[in-house]
Design brief:
The chain has 10 helices and 9 strands. It has a 6-stranded mixed sheet with strand order 5-6-7-3-8-9. The protein starts with a strand and ends with a helix. By secondary structure, the protein is of the alpha/beta class. The longest helix has 20 residues, at 257-276. It folds into 2 domains: 3-221, P-loop containing nucleotide triphosphate hydrolases (Rossmann fold), CATH 3.40.50.300; 233-278, no CATH class. The model has no long low-confidence stretch (mean pLDDT 90).
Length: 278
């Protein structure tokens, strides 16, 4: 069963002069195994939305269920792995091992089962076991983000929810996180990410949800998104759209630099052939 949000509204500073509507009448369904991107400008309600999934926030109106259960239930919290934007705010243990093991131990798994999950999660984020004795706060930003991700993966979640997971990372750190997320999706885990980094994530996204002022203004596939006016686009997609507007017959469903290069060369070859036949 999926994550289902029905007619969700959420307000900050409810019933005060500072009341702000963060989400208004949101309806959303996320299935297991999907890779979903939640996009929007700052203040659109993205981070508020994902905090409803596991009961960190409760809606002022509407209903949220995860596999038919209330988000606040312990069972749901074991099914959803959360990784926040600032990994340092999520880490608190003395060693990487303790950090990754915290979730399984908290949910009652044995020491042996927990150790197996720690090693499995460590491998998933491409760390070797020498990292386990390290102090998490002595690590680089990218390494801390991978430790936070490993802590979520140790729960073997059905849904992996991330808030700007590659912001501030260097290129190698971004690639490592993206490779791990793709692998988790391929193994059947739903990956739901809030992101501004369309350049990194766009090739992986199967479905896009665009929020504007607390409402869903678009929901659909990458291909549908590219055909929609007035939406946020990754640089490559913007370039392809500009080429199409100038009359070049390029395929709009281009998501990576490599695809763009092949498509431009294809069109160039086609045009040269047509000119030679005139």
């Amino acid at each position: 069963m999926p994550i289902i949000l029905e007619n969700i509204s959420f307000f900050y500073s409810r019933n005060t002069p500072l009341e702000t509507a963060a989400l208004q009448n949101v309806n959303l369904r996320i299935e297991k195994g999907e890779f979903v991107g939640i996009l929007g400008e700052k203040g659109a309600g993205k981070s508020t939305l994902i905090k409803l999934f596991n009961g960190l926030l409760c809606p002022d109106s509407g209903k949220v269920t995860v596999d038919g259960l209330a988000p606040s239930s312990k069972e749901v919290k074991s099914r959803i792995g959360m990784v926040f934007q600032q990994a340092a705010d999520q880490l608190f243990c003395r060693t990487v091992y303790e950090e990754i093991a915290f979730g399984p131990l908290n949910f009652g798994y044995s020491r042996k089962e927990t150790e197996e999950r720690v090693f499995e999660a460590l491998e998933a984020v491409s760390f070797d076991r020498t990292m386990l004795s390290r102090d998490p706060f002595s690590l680089s930003g990218g390494e801390m983000q991978r430790v936070a991700l490993a802590g979520a993966l140790a729960l073997r979640p059905d849904y992996l929810v991330l808030d700007e997971p590659i912001t501030g990372l260097d290129p190698s750190g971004k690639k490592e996180i993206l490779d791990t997320l793709k692998k988790m999706k391929d193994q059947g885990t739903a990956v739901i990410t809030v992101t501004h980094n369309l350049k990194g994530f766009f090739p992986l996204l199967e479905r896009i949800v665009l929020l504007r002022e607390g409402r869903i203004s678009f929901e659909g596939s990458r291909e549908e998104y590219l055909e929609t006016e007035n939406v946020l686009l990754p640089p490559i997609a913007s370039m392809i759209r500009e080429l199409r507007s100038r009359g070049m017959p390029v395929n709009p469903a281009i998501f990576t630099v490599e695809e763009a290069l092949k498509e431009i060369l294809r069109v160039k070859s086609m045009i040269e052939k047509e000119n030679s036949e005139k």
